[in-house]
Amino acid sequence: MVDPYRLTVPEIIAKIDNRELTAEECLSSFLTRIRKIDGKINAFITINHEAAFQRAKNIDKKVRNGERVGTLRGVCIAIKDNICTKGIPTTCSSKMLEHFIPNYNAYVIDKLLEEDAIIIGKTNMDEFAMGSTTENSFFGPTKNPWNLSYVPGGSSGGSAAAVSSCESVLSIGSDTGGSVRSPASFCSIVGLKPTYGVVSRYGLIAYANSLEQIGPMARNVKDLALLFNTMIGHDSMDSTSTSTPYSDYSTFLVDDITDFKLGVPKEFFGEGVDERVAKTVWKGIDKLEALGATCEETSLSTVKYALSAYYLIAMSEASSNLARYDGIRYGYSENSKSENWNNFVSRNRGRGFGSEVKRRIILGTYALSAGYYDKYYIKSLQVRTKIRQEFIKTFNQFDVLIGPTMPIPPFKIGEKIEDPLALYMSDILTVPVNLVGCPAISIPCGFVNNLPIGMQMISPPLREDLLLKASYSFEQNSNLKDRGPKI
Amino acid sequence: MAKTENISKQKIEHIAWLARIELSDEEKKLFTLQINKILEYFKIIEDAKTEDVHPTFNILGLSNVLREDDVKPSQSNVEALKNAPIKERGYFKTTKIV
Predict the structure, then answer these.
(1) Segment among A57-71, A152-166, B3-17 with least mean pLDDT
(2) Chain A closest CA to B19's CA: distance in Å?
(3) Taking CB atoms and an 8 Å limit, are A366 and B58 in contact across chains?
């Protein structure tokens, strides 16, 4: 029999239903796998060992008794460590929250548990989701399973590496400016950034709330769609929560993209985009055309402002959101003695936060300060309006916009970490989507020197169905779907 | 790099103080350098024509989302204090504020 950790979601469910496999055996297979290889990858911060076994046993009992079981029965899932899990440490990869244990579940966690998924552990990330490589972690960097000297992308690098290396079937990340799509691209898996509002952010530890969404990650499009189905729904605990037009996205997994209109913005292949990446993604676009889609070049002239506007907005929101970490109600705290309160809080924050977090809070505070508020913050929000208008207008002509997810192939750990601006530049193709609020997916497209390259597709708001259909067709007709890292 | 310094080390010190983040001397020097480089790049948005363009704070265009003022259960005192570094008699405890 195939090792259970290599199975897809429908395979696991089928085997559990016909009693070939128990949820407990399946979980054991993953935990053994993690024990064997995670020392090399460092995808996990916390393994939810005991509670996971308890749940697996419960699910097996329900199956034996013929009781109702959920749509993800027995399926292991890894959760990014900025999503609150009751009773399980949730650190944001920060010294600030090293010992933080939430006393409530995020909305998506409750939904997953309702559907009988098993939370196998919490995954490594860039501290407070600020980064593109998973190197900014208090718990050390995550390695790319395809080559351990390379970064896995970020900030949801642990979630991507765990799924890519079969340490979990599924995972969940968050995407503020590409944090699901970047690691999905670098680790050769599928990652979706949903339309802003369709997945509740209740229980997601806030970084930049007008931009971020929780998103599903999987090794194939079908698994991803099944996971996405469980994550959506209106939540009164999130005032920006909206409903989706569909409830079952697996119905869109049809291998047929005739009549699909693809737009290729020339800026997605412009300055800063590596030639090898461009070539690989063009081959992917050619394939979609060969499958019956029509493809036309277009232009998004405002995207050249996207990176600056994105970072200014994200940093401004971060400086406000992260003001809550004072080390009094929770979080890292020095011995207070009886000193001045301001010094006490400043020291907690100075020592509890890592460099990138401090840099972004300072930049955000600056952009919101008197005299600079209009110049930086309001200006960025106006630029956001212009970018959004241009995207919406372009969507009148196309079903899907397409290009590379990342402008460059995966690079070596340590290669860029000393130069924050160079790292920001790697987000140049992913951030426009978060400013607009529309959905986007990254799917495996090919390799350069045995390192994965991802293709990004972007659709109008609430049209995840188009992304899934196009991705599924591409996947079914590519030779990439059975290729995994040798680890 | 051309020395068009946007922001001095003293200014970084002041902003870090506003943000209540204690920085070491080394961090102050490094951040000044890095933040200047980043702000230099951000200047590109000055070229965007945004006269009479409304700022987008939230893409959903929501203003107030209201609900009935019903009391619902919330966490208990004991639970709310669970992650507090220092507590006393059911309260958070911290250093003297005034």
Answers:
(1) B3-17
(2) 7
(3) no
Residues 6+ apart with CB under 8 A from A474: A284, A287, A288, A291, A443, A455
For residue A144, give the nearest of A451, A477, A448, A453 by alpha carbon.
Answer: A451
Active site residue A478: no
Q: What is the DSSP string of A291-322?
A: TT-EEEEE--GGGGGHHHHHHHHHHHHHHHHG
3-state secondary structure of A255: coil
CA A214 to chain centre: 7
Is A333 strand, coil or helix?
coil
Read off φ and ψ for residue A123, nearest 5 degrees: -105, 155
Q: What angle do CA A137, A139, A141 make, to 5 degrees?
A: 60
Measure in Å the smallest separation between the Cα of B4 and chain A Cα atoms: 17
Q: For residues A393 and A203, what is the distance between their CA atoms, to the nearest angstrom?
A: 34
Taking each helix axis as running N to C, give the angle between helix A306-321 and helix A355-368, from 0 to 180 degrees, rounded to the nearest 10: 100
From A93, A164, A179, A319, the catalytic residue = A179
Distance from C-alpha of A371 to C-alpha of A367, rounded to nearest angstrom:
9
Pick the CATH number of A1-487 from 3.30.70.2740, 3.90.1300.10, 3.40.50.720, 1.20.140.160: 3.90.1300.10
Domains observed in chain B: 1-47 (1.10.20.60)
- Mutation site, B5, B20, B38, B64, interface A, largest A CB count within 10 A: B20
Hey, what are A3's tokens? Answer: 């090792």
**Which residues pair with residue A279 across a beta bridge?**
none
Find how far residue A218's CA is from the centre of its chain. Answer: 10
User: How does pLDDT run across A45-98, given as a tens digit for each residue?
Assistant: 999 999 999 999 999 999 999 999 999 999 999 999 999 999 999 999 999 999
Name the nearest CA neighbour of A45 among A156, A131, A152, A151: A156
Per-residue DSSP letter, A372: T
pLDDT at B2 over 90: no
Q: Is A99 on the interface with B (CB under 8 A)?
A: yes
Interface residue A335 vs chain B (CB under 8 A): no
Summarised one tens digit per residue, pLDDT across range A37-52 is 999 999 999 999 999 9
Instruction: Kindly write down the DSSP assignment for every residue of B40-79, as one continuous string.
Output: HHHGGGGGS--TTPPP-S-TT----------------HHH
**Chain B residues in contact with A87 (beta carbon < 8 A):** none
Are A103 and B75 within 8 A, CB to CB? Answer: yes
